[in-house]
Amino acid sequence: MLPPENDRDAQTLIQTMEGYYAAAFEGFDEDAAFYEGTFGSMVTVPEGFPITIPTTGRAVVDEAVDSIVPADILVSYPPRGMTKKAEEDSQNGGRWLRHAWGHVRSKGSDIDPMRDFARNLFMSGKACYKVVPDYTLWPLLPEPEEKALRELGGTALKDRVRLIKQIREENFPLTVRSLAPSCIMEDPTIANRKLWICERYVMSNAEVRSLYSQDVEEFRDQNFWGHSSYNIHELWTATYVDYKGKLHPGKHWVFINYGMVVEEDNPYHNIPYVLKYSGFGREAYEGSPEYKSVGFFTPQVKSMLLAEARRATHFDVMMSQLAFPIAFMSYKIEDANISFEPGAVNFVPEDVLANIQNTFISPH
Predict the structure, then answer these.
(1) Distance (Å, rounded) from C-alpha 11 to C-alpha 13?
(2) 143, 195, 231, 277: least buried by Cβ within 10 Å?
(3) In whole angstroms, what is the distance from residue 269 CA to residue 306 CA?
(4) Mind listing the pLDDT tens digit for each residue in 17-33?
């Protein structure tokens, strides 16, 4: 599917894809519920009985992730030639990639993105990386700023350049984030290159105000605080050449509650996302992406997990009834001194003693 050329087409594409991926998003929410153990509302039990959630759903996914995510990475970086220099470049490139991934996994993210990526693959059959530079860790010196520093004279420009070099030496600018499958709507074209991807997420009022209030005057107004959160759609398109040889530059749009706040050229030319499917699903040519994003929680597995939750709940309730049986007693029992301690001997009226077998209800 060709990417949009303007903001109106971009907005139309976003709204169309929200409907196209609606069933898939519903499935992703169910997958998360079975993984997190929050599917108790799907289990029907009589009122007043607690639901016992088994650990199977989460344990199977976590064990699968543990089995494939390595503590360290062995990078294979083939030489780009037959010379000695090509061999040395290959070794240097492999070492750099290995340590770059080590930094990203240990210090570049709150949660190891590789582990989260694998979890999404097993849980929902779809996972995505977003790879972009963080320019606060790799500062630039724009021409207007450089000109202003030169006009100040002295060592102002040299001091700024020295500070920029120091920050660059101390930091790694590339950031790798693992995105949940419910945050991604991608070009549905089955090809070796996706020409657009839309990232969707919810951002708090404070975050929107912090990021965009300098560019959008509306966000500086006091009335802006009436909303607690906002729906964000971030659409990236790739640079491509059509069949007539015309060049179409890549674009980047940001929409907040379907209102455009950012429109700029894509500086990367390609989309900054790496998208993969588990392979447990199938290509859906009938416009049903939910059949392509298939992880561990298939309808059959979900049915078995619900049955397991019901059985565990039934067993738990039966054991509770054995340990704490329900009693039906004559009101006269209040006049007697009754003890419910194990092995206790109680003296009760004759009519209560005659019906003692019917006093407590035990499960059968």
Answers:
(1) 5
(2) 143
(3) 46
(4) 999 999 999 999 999 99
